[in-house]
Protein 1
Amino acid sequence: MRKLRRFSERPREPVAVTVDPLPTADALRFLAEGEVVVCEPIAWGSNYSFAVVLRRDDEQRLAVYKPRRGEVPLWDFPDGTLYRREYAAFLVSQALGWDFIPPTVIRGGPYGIGTVQLYIDADPRADPSKLRQTNEGELMRMFLFDVFANNADRKSTHCLRDRQGKLWGIDHGLTFNVVTKLRTVIWDFCGEPIPRPVLDEMSAFLSDRARMDALNGQLAELLDPAEVAAFYARFERLLKLGRFPHLDPYRNVPRGWW
């Protein structure tokens, strides 16, 4: 097995890739079945991650590959579980119908098992400070998600507005801890009532036994039972409260927040 490295040993020629949006089901199939034809290290971040080009038939697309082997040990998260948390976050967002996490799969790759997530072609002109003006509904759902998923690392660079104007959230490896660890840059809605349509979406999820059973079966393979129970407890508490929580300026700010 090849040794992990952070930087490319030699430059590569540009590779032609498709960036047009894909329906989620098609994207998941592409991510699971595509052949890795390029794998280049991404030079930032505390864990090893790679930009990969996947090829399926005559189509090539970019994705981000995060192998289990590249996870730096943390004192407060079990070793080798971040890729599973990343995938669990995607599954929860899909179960809720909150389609803001890019299609994600767990699969093998050049450095072993890990997540492969569809690359988002972000609009470089998007201003993170103006997302409430341009993407309010998506942003408030992202904030709520971070509360009940206990996201310990929502930086501004983890909120991407694509060229079609859709808001996406990435980097969900530090989620679903039993101990409260919420850290986020999304403070726009603190203390405000959660809009009724959003509360209705949350209630509909809890009352849909088929959706709940399907998600529970998936989460059981990814998270500790105590983590799943804590997730549901936070979800139900937030729904009962009916308001966005107030945040602590000392405890709830991510490190290197920008």
Protein 2
Amino acid sequence: MKTYVGSGAVLVLALFVMIFQPFGNALSLQSQLMLGGILITFGIWIFKPFNIPFSVGAMFLGCFGLAVGLPPSVVFSGFTQSAVWTLIAALFFGFALQKTGLGYRIALAILRLFKPSYISLVLAWAIIGLALSVLTPSITVRVAIVIPIAVNCCELCHLKPGSKGNSLIMLTAFAMAMVPGGGWMNGALAGPIIHGAYESVPELAGMLTFDSWMSVSLAPVEIATALMLIGSLILFKPKEPLPAKAINAIKSTRLEPISMNEIITAAILIGAFILFFTGSIHNIPSTAVCLGATFLLFAFGIIKVDEIGTGVNWDNIIFIGIALGLGTICSATGITEWISGLIVPALTGISNSPFLFVGVIAVVFFAWRMIDIANFMTTFILIPAMLPAINARYGVHPLVFVPMLYLASNAFFMNYQNSWALMGQAVARKRSWTPGHLAAYGTIYFAASIISLMIMVPFWVKVGMFG
């Protein structure tokens, strides 16, 4: 019912804008018609009425843009960005990691290194999350790999479903598959998407690179990760120790001998990450590295020709490709300038204090994440368009928003707002976390994120990111 009420309310608002044109003095007829079409699209993406896929909602946006007279070069501009091709390659990376069994082998091997305790298991999941983030930007793949292992771990430890111990292990595995990879641009799919959004704004083109992403995001994301782990151990750690038999059972789990396909996949993906990391030396674009690595995965037969259609989620690719064009659409129709004129002046009250500015914006992003449940896509696309105006008026460097956007995009107070939480819950079934435990862990993550951003403010001020 909420799905239809929400989408219906957005549709009524969109029709009101298109019929009565309340912004006649600020926006042209074409702009207000396009604004109505964008609102309808957001309603489809956020509320998913009739289970309409994201890609179909994106197709509606493309259809509407062409219908109101926008040229195809504007409507489909997102597909010309390198970010789309980075995403396609990244999804193939995840498919190869899952298909060969390399991801499962790595996760299990790391678990075997630790002695039986809740602290050691939490640390193990952190290392697993970092290792898998290096090999694939796909959080979906990482969650698909770690959740079954976490379920097996809980069962071997005889933890009761719904208990603190069960939720600690399950939620830590889930969170570590999702959060720490945001420290570098290709550690999560949000990276290429945000990069594409920045590139679509002429004033920001070339600003966001692998190096610049790390310079502003690595420290706050990893600090937030560490604080989240500490907070979870304080709040969720049970009094009962883990049985040694259970950990021994994990260590004795047999795996098939490592295959040549796993070795080749590991070599290709590690090589790609090294090239990402050393981009300032060789100047090879990350998109070129991604495409080259994908070529090698096909050339060595890791991915077969008939898996091109099934190896990646083309629904997401179509959705992201058209969504990345939203910035160009809004700029071409004057919507960006109009929105900036409303929002940028409203920031005056918090502009005098960098701490207040970052804190308020971050809290607003986390709150908005409860509405923008389409993986924060609309926010990723629309916020960068306003950053030049914010920079010009308040002297806040656009890169400051990168870690705020990424950290907020992973919010999971409730499972409906985070697709990976829904996925993890579906995979874990009876071994899943309780809603109360998810909300508590999500609150820890929120607090850890805000604290980490506050820690970074003095550094950002020192390096001149606040004028």
Protein 3
Amino acid sequence: MKITKSLSDKTKAGGMSEVLLRFVGGRGMVLRVKSGIFVKPSDWSDRTETKPAGLKTISKTAKLSEQQRLKEAAEKLANLENAISAAFVSTPKDKIDKEWLEKVIHDFHFPPVPEDQKKKTKNLKFFEVFDLFLDKQGQATETPVIKTARKKPREFKKGTIFKFKALKKHLQDYDSKMTFESLNFEKLQGFVDYEINDMNLINSTVEKRFSYLNWFLNWASEWGYNTNMAYSNFPLNLEVPESDVVYLDENELKAVRNHDFSNNPSLDRVRDVFVFCCYSGLRYSDVENLKRSNIRNNKMYITTIKTSDRLEIDLNDITRSILDKYKNCQFKDNKALPVISNQKMNDALEKMAIACKIDTPIEKTIFKGNERISITVPKYELVRTHTARRTFVCTAIRLGISPTIIMKFTGHKDYDTMKKYIGAMDKEKSEAMKLFND
């Protein structure tokens, strides 16, 4: 048995083309079928003398959304080939024909739901399943209909629940009688248009919202509530610019460190936590979870919340002094620092940045549908918890620390990730060149 792939020369909505399969089953059996998987023509590489046709290998410096899209398409194609191979081995040769192959592909995209599962789910409507999803927090107690390798479930954070509830509200406003069966390409594109035109959302927000919709639909499919897999091939082609690397330069960081917040204790604590992250490289989730038991021998020993990386981060004079400042304070769960919620901290950081006069004009490019919009905002509007981690990386680069060492502290996996930070420092390079002027 052998499967080769090619790309249809016809494009669907959103400029996507379907991958076509050529199945060779032996003894002159050649079957040609549609895969039901769509990709961008620009993502496809035609056959050459040295390698077969298939998806291109995307650069690690490409936009994360593009990397994710290609990764998912490659995994789906590989899983489909595995499904066909497994079915071929278990099927009598006289039963193998084009109708059989089309059914294998159909069942791959739309797995049959067992009768006992149908009885459990047939009376649940779309938004009732959504509520069940929120109640279960992406988990369930029964055995899933679709067998997949599942990560260890974690409870949703408050922010995640809030985003799902916002998504549900928008879906209800768009179509209060929404059903799983109705979610075809036209319906999904209508929701995109509704979010952009009626809700006045920019493309990056719509893209993020669709990632949450896919999360819910994947769960509903896995547990047998949904059998309409059209969403998995829906081409969400929205222009989303790469996010800017917003960080504090040397003078701005000094201004934050040295500002007197003695008349505002809450901002003083927020500033301390922010500065701690600026000099340690910790994400918000990791500093929020940092316990005194994680600190010993002048180092922090951390298993990161986001990626489960085990990191060993040395203390320096600044991080050590901040820990010493709060060593006699008692915080919940023996935590080391007075960390408030992410949203409250972001709100406070803007106030902190205003007080420290971090107001450099920053030009941002956003897209709303096909409309490109350039706006200029003061830098304090862009200072968030993640700004601290970016500041750590950019400061380390400015100080001449090797990217390999920086990655040991931050947990970044490869050097390509560092390139966007190096590029963000072009302004500082220009300022350094001025030192040669008379």
Protein 4
Amino acid sequence: MSEETIRNITHFGWDMFSGEVIMSLIVMGIIIIFSFAVYFKFRKLDPTKPDKGFAMVVESVVDKLESFTVEMMGNKWRHFSGYALGLAMYIILSFLVSIIGFPGPLTYLGNTLSIALCTFFLIHITAMKKNKLGYFKRYIDPIPILLPVNLLSMWAPLLSLSLRLFGNALAGYTLMSIVYYFLGVASDAIFGGFISTGASNIFIAPFITPVLHLYFDIFSGLIQTFIFVMLTMIFISQEDPEEEDSSEVLKIQKGKA
């Protein structure tokens, strides 16, 4: 692990020259460019003809994510799928850039904390919109003396989301760094007598590390993306749950009778 990475992990100061911060901005730039490309692509499509190719794939992904959002949060949260898609793209791309040797944005706690703060603010904005001044009552329930405890528990989703994502990304990065180091040592020990020093430590790694990257950067990245997005949906929707249709409730009650 580089000294720069260790410094970024342990230091919360805003450093515009940090590799992790710069890569985070690049990932966001890629998402913005991709979004505009999709927008202009769909503007040119003929609505009377069936979609095919790239347009069909994009539409399929959007439809599935919208269905998942409705399933997790309720029909009135259907529009939330756009934010969920942007969040998912950022997290998975942040894992994937590590495969090509760039600093992983999620190995810097400031980046994971930033996206977790977005969820944190959405949770409390939703609660305020739903409960108005009654929002503040939660901090003195069931008795006012529990105010300090309730204020501490308020930060639980923020810490849970940011530290889980950061911990998994950092663990994968650290393990891969250790593997590359020892494979380099082993390769140098085997081929060092035949090839000049510096070039002999790269022969074993390409045969072993792709499988590990498949797990730590792709499989683990997809799992962490799913968990982060799903928890975001749960935390936000529970502040303003969808009310059941009274006619549907009546039917269920009659069926039970």
